[in-house]
Design goal:
The protein has ten helices and 16 strands. By secondary structure, it is an alpha+beta fold. The strands form four sheets. The protein has a seven-stranded mixed beta sheet. Helix 9 runs antiparallel to helix 10. It is globular.
Length: 403
């Protein structure tokens, strides 16, 4: 759940968006056109690296494992529920703060409203941080049960399981009016249990209590994979006020939201989330056998490394501004600089040393940046140049003193 020239080719969206539903059902929702993604205002924090991802829609690229997983899930819903669930995808990722936050009862002081966590176009528009941003729009247009698939954007750390762009799927079902709270939760669990067993078989999983502003009660599902518990999805009974925001105050139902990226990583044994963004045929051709969706019960293609190109690392050390401790340092700003300067060449960033210099009254941090490409060998001179740019950006934009 829950630079205009760079974007010239995608700076405008059509005045309407087509959503292809199960078995040919077609729906339309109105949407505003794209504003320019990179603007000169105090709110805008979208980098060229992020702007280039908008419009790529890897969940619609036939050989991409994300698209294959999407098709597999949609086939399940078509098989089990016929035409009940309409499907909306290809919706502009630029949404208003009303859509992303207010409609969903997200408090004014919630962390997702901060520039440190969300990509802002301007004070009133963001790149959607979740597909739940379309919940009220779909309900207000008369969709009762529907699925929304889309690319979402959040500022995040840099490692092999986190990426600032990810694909979410939102499932919403409206039940008969006056359904009891227990009926809503029972139906939610029945549908979710069926999907989990369909995708993962007899996997060990558990339901745990959670909190989302727009559902009550709220729940999460964790699955036990590869020796550890992994969050799979968030869900809950939709708050009455959310239905009221869609001008349907008497209705009730539930919502489930989950990320396709990590689920695809687990299903296809893909170790690095950056791989989904490769256009290399050596990667995509590995999944040709299931281009129309995975046949559950049959062997699933498992990713084979393209080549084990060596990694290299560079360290960067700096003092935080005087009086600042690391708890108040915006790490996402640091991660954003690294991504923007290196593209997808950084595999991981780890904190390897931290100490407080009493004489200077300043906190020192040392980070190790691991570089590796899945497509080619990286040259030392190339990495040195990137590292130099990163150091310069750290000093200029983070207010730190390099060591």
């Amino acid at each position: 759940m829950f630079v205009a020239s760079i974007q010239s080719s995608i700076s405008r969206a059509p005045a309407w968006i087509q959503a292809v539903g199960l078995r040919g059902c077609v729906c339309r929702l109105s949407t505003s056109s794209y504003p320019e993604l990179i603007k000169d205002n105090e709110w805008n924090n979208i980098t060229p690296t992020i702007a280039k991802k908008v419009g790529m829609n890897i969940y619609q690229q036939p050989l991409n494992p994300i698209c294959i997983l999407k098709k597999t899930i949609l086939k399940y819903f078509a098989k089990e529920y016929g035409n009940e669930f309409k499907v909306f995808e290809g919706i502009s990722p630029v949404v208003t703060t009303t859509q992303a936050f207010d409609n969903l009862l997200i408090p004014k002081d919630h962390v997702t409203r901060r520039k440190s966590d969300t990509y802002f176009v301007d004070a009133t528009h963001v790149l959607r941080p979740h597909t739940s941003a379309h919940q009220v729009d779909c309900l207000s247009k008369g969709a009762d049960s529907f699925i929304v698939v889309g690319d979402c954007y959040r500022r995040d750390e840099v490692n092999m399981t986190h990426y600032p762009v990810f694909t979410q799927m939102e499932v919403v079902r409206t039940l008969p009016r006056n359904s009891s709270p227990q009926t809503i939760i029972d139906d939610l669990k029945k549908v979710t249990d069926g999907l989990i067993h369909y995708l993962l078989g007899n996997v060990n999983y558990r339901w745990i209590d959670a909190y989302f502003p727009f559902t009550d009660p709220s729940l999460e599902v964790e699955v036990f994979r590869d020796g550890k518990w992994m969050e799979l999805l968030g869900c809950g009974a939709i708050q009455p006020q959310v239905y009221a925001n869609a001008n349907r105050p008497e209705d009730c139902g539930w919502a489930v939201g989950f990320g396709l990226d990590r689920l695809a990583m687990s299903l296809f044994k893909i170790p690095d989330i950056r791989l989904f963004w490769l256009t290399d045929k050596r990667f995509l051709s590995q999944f040709e056998s299931c281009v129309d969706g995975v046949e559950i019960g049959k062997e699933v293609p498992v990713f084979h490394p393209l080549s084990k190109f060596p990694s290299c690392y560079k360290d960067v050390s700096f003092f935080l501004p005087e009086g600042m401790d690391k708890e108040h340092f915006c790490f996402n700003d640091m991660y954003e600089i690294v991504r923007n300067e290196s593209g997808d060449l950084v595999e991981d960033i780890e904190l390897i040393d931290s100490f407080f210099n009493k004489k200077k009254n300043r906190q020192s941090l040392c980070y190790r940046i691991h570089y590796r490409s899945h497509e080619r060998n990286l040259l030392n001179s190339e990495i040195d140049e990137i590292q130099m740019r990163i150091r310069g950006e750290f000093a200029q934009k983070l207010g730190v003193t390099l060591r």
